[in-house]
Amino acid sequence: MMKRWHAAKRLLPLFAGLVLLLSACGREDLSAINPQGPVAEKQYGLMTLSISIMTLVVVVVFAISFYVIIRYRRKPGQNDIPKQVEGNHKLEIIWTVIPIVLLLILAVPTAKYVFAFAEDYSKDENAIKVNVTSHQYWWEFEYPEYGIRTAQDLIIPTNKKIAINLRTQDVLHSFWVPSLAGKMDTNTEGNLNKMYIEATKENVYRGKCAELCGPSHAYMDFKVKAVNEDTFKAWVNEMNAEPKAWTGDPAAYDKFKTSCLSCHALDNSQSLGPNLKGLGSRESIAGIMLNRDNVSEPINQDLMEQHLREWIVDPERVKPGNAMTNGMTGVEFTDEELDQIVDYLSNYKLDSLKEINKQ
């Protein structure tokens, strides 16, 4: 017994080190314990309540266990059996009632909020409706009330409920913005899931796919940009405006049109690939190639152009298994054509998002 205890003591520093190491894993902007909206705050409250109850139970059980071990341990020369409490009605009532009370304390708010989180705001006149479609490995966002269709960046006004309809174009995915709400699966047509999110302050919130969906599942990221009401209206106007004019070589534009725009779009029409309108205002290329030196600095134009060039030239290296790899088969651009395409897309910025992109 003593040998086992000495062996366990040698492992304690290792386990303590692992706890400290794992506590530093992940990102602050992808944390469910850093709530930034009403839904996430209530979910965090439920987590806090359940962890508090579990901690209380563990502490009490261990305290009683240690007390019993010490108080009633066999003493030298003691051979009699201590008084047994089996069948003690008072004790049995106590350790039956206490768990029931604890379960009720947890169950009542859980049931209350589970139904509240599932409330359908799609018919609420004050809510913003968004149809979210998941693809391997990108996100499409449609605003049916505004006739807008975009990708990768979900733009929402602060202090408004965003009613979301979730569907998938291929395999099962899961929509998750940890700082704003819990995850919800995207199902096929006819079995739509619905949820809502809400942000109380202007910020950029990171989102991910939370359902294993293929080799690039870990790279299926998106951004939620919460802006004020005026900025949102300005963004809607820009998205409904005519696409930015091409100022380069017409021959290069023809190549861009026949190759890139056969799958993508610069207007609000539906397309096979992500919508490219306002690509220069997005925080990342392909959802994962961050156009910032770090998350706290403004978008770096040179870095964006570098990432865009890498993505166009070799999308399979960036996101294995993505649909663009097959779509680019046989398409080759000269250096001059590639430079013009990169220049056009990276400088296709939306003035309405300038301030949020500085955060």
TrEMBL record:
GO biological process: ATP synthesis coupled electron transport
The protein's name in its UniProt record: Cytochrome c oxidase subunit 2
Coiled coil location: none
The Cytochrome oxidase subunit II copper A binding domain, residue ranges: 125-238
Record domain Cytochrome c: where: 247-349
Cofactor note: Binds a copper A center.
Superkingdom, taxonomy of origin: Bacteria
Pfam families: COX2, COX2_TM, Cytochrom_C
GO MF term list: copper ion binding; cytochrome-c oxidase activity; heme binding; oxidoreductase activity
Predominant cellular place of this UniProt entry's protein: membrane
InterPro entries attached to this UniProt entry: CcO_II, CcO_II-like_C, Copper_CuA, Cupredoxin, CuRO_CcO_Caa3_II, Cyt_c-like_dom, Cyt_c-like_dom_sf, Cyt_c_oxidase_su2
Cofactor: Cu cation
SUPFAM superfamilies: Cupredoxins (SSF49503), Cytochrome c (SSF46626), Cytochrome c oxidase subunit II-like, transmembrane region (SSF81464)
Subcellular location: Cell membrane; Membrane
Organism of provenance: Paenibacillus aquistagni
Its job: Subunits I and II form the functional core of the enzyme complex. Electrons originating in cytochrome c are transferred via heme a and Cu(A) to the binuclear center formed by heme a3 and Cu(B).
Alphabetic keyword roster: Copper, Electron transport, Heme, Iron, Membrane, Metal-binding, Respiratory chain, Translocase, Transmembrane, Transmembrane helix, Transport
Family the UniProt entry places it in: Belongs to the cytochrome c oxidase subunit 2 family.
Enzyme class: translocase
EC nos: 7.1.1.9
